[in-house]
Amino acid sequence: MTTKHISPRTRPAEIYLDNNATTPVLPSAALAAMQCMQQQFGNPSSSHTTGIKAKATLEQARNLARTVTGAGNGRIVFTSGATEGIQSAVVSALLALRAKGTSGTETLLLYGATEHKAVPESLKHWNEVLQLGATVTAIPVDQNGQLDAHFIAKHAAAAGLICTMAANNETGISQQLKELEHCIRAANPDVFWLVDCVQALGKMPLNLESTTIDYAPFSGHKLYAPKGVGFLYVRASAPYQPFIAGGGQEGGLRSGTENLPGIAALGAVLAELQQTDGKVFQSEQTLWKYRDDLLNALLTVFPALTLNSERPYIVPTTINFSVPGFYSKDIMDLFDAAGIRISSGSACSSKVPSSFVLDAMGLAAWRSQGAIRLSFGPAMTAIECADACKAIRALKEVVNKHCLVVTDATPTLEIHANGLLQLKHEDSCSYLLIDNQTKQAVVIDPVPALVNRMINIVQGRHLQLLAILETHHHSQHDSQNNSQHNSQNNMQQELQIDRPQQSAALLLRQALHFYQDNCDDSGWPEGAGSIELADYSLTRLATPGHCASAISIVLQHRQRVVAVFVGDLILPGGIGRTDLAGGNASELQQSIQSLAAKVAPDTLLLSSHDYAQRFATTLRLAKQESALFSKLLAGQPAEQWQQQLNAQTAKLQQASHYYCGLVEVTVTDASRMLNKADLAEVLRQQPELQVVDVREPHEQSAGPLQQHLPAINKVLAVPLSKLCDALISRQLEPSRPLLLVCRSGNRSLLACKVLRRFGFDTVYNLNGGMALLV
Fold this sequence. Notes:
Elements: E1 3-4, E2 14-16, H1 27-38, H2 49-69, E3 75-79, H3 82-99, E4 108-112, H4 118-129, E5 135-139, H5 149-155, E6 159-165, H6 177-187, E7 192-196, E8 215-219, E9 230-234, H7 260-273, H8 284-301, E10 306-307, E11 318-322, H9 328-337, E12 340-341, H10 356-360, H11 365-369, E13 372-375, H12 382-393, H13 395-401, E14 419-425, E15 428-435, E16 440-444, H14 451-460, E17 464-469, H15 475-478, H16 488-494, H17 504-512, E18 531-533, E19 536-542, E20 551-557, E21 560-567, E22 570-571, E23 574-575, H18 585-596, E24 604-607, H19 619-625, H20 627-633, H21 642-654, E25 672-674, H22 676-685, E26 690-693, H23 697-702, E27 715-717, H24 723-728, E28 738-741, H25 746-757, E29 763-766
Parallel strand pairs: 2-12, 4-5, 4-6, 6-7, 16-17, 21-24, 25-29, 26-27, 26-28, 28-29
Antiparallel strand pairs: 1-2, 3-9, 8-9, 10-11, 11-13, 14-15, 15-16, 18-19, 19-20, 20-21, 22-23
Helix pairs in contact: 1-7, 2-7, 3-4, 5-6, 8-12, 14-17, 16-17, 19-20
């Protein structure tokens, strides 16, 4: 882990806790690479003195690799990294199988279900390229991440190659190699065995010579060496086919001039690894202590934290955890704003990303979707660990302030806890209207995945709920409504699992003990013409069509209609479907016409779903963007547009992959993409330029933007969850030039798209976001 200090009196500006992804280069390794490039720059294949010196450096590193891994008389082949090592091993094993006539679907190529993707993808690729025709099959794991020994015992006899890993990159879970070897060899003494040792080096003892492991790849950049260098262990009796042919380097095993600076750096790391004085690499006991310290710091911030992997199944340098009520991105954004680098270990997805490793372990969906990996290296110092713990504990105040967890602390009043919040989950939208003076609130269209967040806000802010409203609900929800009697604690845990068939409104009422006897199915108080919340007034309008009992909720502020919650009557870029139970196309048309008669062309229309990440729409935009909407509004007969309506519904469903950052926006959505170097000149030319921070409030508190832009006098905080509120309150003026900023530049570019759609002419985006300002 490396730290970069702003000044001797402040904590480190960057706390790096993502060492399983990559590590900084040790000073001794960087020095070795530099000396090699400047002084020992010879080609190891040259026979003159300069080449001989280079060859000596190469072989010294090879001997160190042999010693550290206990390779004995096995071969050590330098590679560009673990992926090349895996490819080389897989190709060698499959070619040997083909030469023996072992092929066809009855031949199995087995790999652990939690392996790094490089392994199964290599198996599939080369099985196809070499036309082996074998069956590639995953070995299941249990909830502790341990490979299923019974499955191996049953299928290993038919296997030509078995691939496992010593330690998992996401969870830190290690396999008991001796027990695994006994299981494999008892079933098939001759099967080839590849063990991914990338995350094992420096974290667990290795003695490859004493095993029957055939191939073991290693990567330099996972252990303080530069990227682009690694090595592959090949058992002396194992077949090996050179993956790269040419000049015959590496004894003919891997052609191409060796990456001598990288190998020299790797050799320096391996030399340090042999030392036992603790000056660079720490003892296993010390690493466990660091882990305990870091875990205690995390528990200070998140008392409900759940570990996804733990003793005795792990190496000490990885903490994989989830927190009820949080997705991975929530915690990553918070930590990153505070200068703490962690990762989710999750695959990118059109929906909420989840960890395939935790999925394979059979853990609950909320744990997989909320998984965070904190990983440190075996060269972490006591000072670095203390700095990291201090930085993590400092987030407790931020988490409490923004009600990310519920505490007994008095909440800090802030602007973001007032007005309209638009909370989004995938393509669903929920709304929370708050008046901070009266401490009153109304919830509109809650969805299950957001219930915990709403509970935290309501309880953390000590808000009095006036109503929990639904613009519509479908019949499949109704049968569930009277069967939910969980306690609040159990409910919050259960809500992490996506169960859309449940009524989120009912779950929220139960969790908050908010019961109203005199209200209709939508939650509207019986006999009440309106719901009054300070300067806000809510009235309802029957708008069936999407379903029979659908309503729209008109929001007035000081007697001015500022927005309408339209449910699925109108969607940003489309119209609600009518082919569900209770749907009626003619009623949908009549409802849209009734709504249009009551609102202005530019009144904000807030939907329950946002398939294209547009946040909201208006009548004017709906007519511009949808010929179907224009036809319907004009009163054309339903038979002329029903088919088109169904087609648009299908298109909207397919477009849901735009959510979660994978938004297909272009630079034209911003007036101009600004680089850091352009900023001063643009500010000079446009002194009226308003800088807008679109990160969420907890990120803004954890890492204020202004400290990175000292030339900016004032930064306007408008989180994406408050973007619609800013439009309603006219906090943002279309005539004023805006510069939008977020952490990476992605969310600010999305906000540019939204604002340009609403008529903002001059909207800049900071390319690369805050990440390139640090």
